[in-house]
Amino acid sequence: MSALTQAHPSDVLTLGETMVALRGSGPLKLGGSMDVSIAGAESNVAIGLARLGHATRWAGAVGDDEAGELVLRTLRAEGVDVSGATRDPDAPTGLILFEPRLPEVTRVHYYRAGSAGSRLTAAAVEGAFAAPGAPRVLHLTGITPALGPAALDACRRALELAREHGTTVCLDVNFRSRLWSAEESAAVMRSWIPYVDVLIASDDELPLCAPEEATPGEARALLARGVGEVVVKLGADGATAHTTDGELHVPARPVRAVDAVGAGDAFVAGYLSALLDGEDVTGRLDRAVTTGAFAVASHGDWEGAPTRAELGLLGAGPGTVIR
């Protein structure tokens, strides 16, 4: 694999697979046109943070192909540092198809077996950490380790390096049943918990991280194991943060939902942005549900992510025209 150059200090380092995304307008078997973009949980977060003014670096692998160039070009255009990325000449860039089947039901089809992203190496991660200035935050998801042994090793190495550099670790569980079983995910997630400072999960993902005997009461058990913050995403019901100081819930921001894909990643970007800004838990949750609302009110994985100047737009009344 060949690494890119010109690294810069970053607030957040994240790594994982970003794919070319094709979005249809209806059932895939009927054909028709498709919109071309990119998609990947970690790069969605990186873009969201970059739009909010934070220095972000994405360390992933793409194929040495035109699809990989689209991924890198898009991330660069969004202000994400791709100096930690690698090009794999022996594997293709992954592909994801979005198939809207009902107004509120979208089927997702992955073509990522044997992809460059699944072959991300620990050496590539070491190169990303070796860049000038250790990142303040390392963001991982439970998707990357499910891609294969190499990607799993890369994540483990990233956790070790984060500990060596005193980097805060954020883990979004992001369980994908099409990639691995709940049992496989739980084994990995539980082994990672000693490294995690901020855990973000939906309520049904918490059991994958906590000891089996902790059900119910997973959040308390995770705090007892050293996690600093356990943030539970509740979709339309908002979110709840658990810390040693107690529990805090905030409702979701009301918006007209058009596409729920990418909402969780936007939530994470908002939460980490406020964390980097030194906001308290209330401020972190407020920004997280705000950025999440922007995502569900927009089509695409990351396209609707707000800039910092746009965060207040959700308070505008219906029919508002800004001139």
What would you say this structure looks like, in words?
The protein is of the alpha/beta class. Helices cover 30% and strands 23% of the residues. The chain has helices at residues 41-51, 66-77, 122-130, 149-165, 182-192, 218-224, 263-276, 281-296, and strands at residues 2-3, 12-15, 19-24, 34-39, 56-59, 61-63, 86-88, 95-102, 105-111, 137-141, 168-172, 198-202, 229-233, 239-243, 246-250. The protein has an eight-stranded mixed beta sheet with strand order 5-2-10-11-12-13-14-15, sandwiched between helices. It has a four-stranded mixed beta sheet with strand order 4-3-8-9. The chain has a three-stranded mixed beta sheet with strand order 1-7-6, covered by helices on one side. Helix 3 (122-130) runs parallel beside helix 4 (149-165) and helix 7 (263-276) packs antiparallel against helix 8 (281-296). The chain is globular, with a radius of gyration of 19 Å. The N and C termini lie far apart (49 Å). The model is unreliable at 2-7 (pLDDT under 50).
User: What is the average of the pLDDT values?
Assistant: 91
Count of alpha and pi helical runs:
8
Side by side, the strands of the main sheet go 5-2-10-11-12-13-14-15
Helix and strand element order: EEEEHEEHEEEHEHEHEHEEEHH
Low-confidence stretches: 2-7
End-to-end gap: 49 Å
Shape: globular
Helix content: 25-40%
Structural class: alpha/beta
- Main beta sheet: 8 strands, mixed
Let me know the number of strands: 15
Cα radius of gyration in angstroms: 19 Å
Query: What share of the residues does DSSP label as strand, in percent?
Result: 15-25%
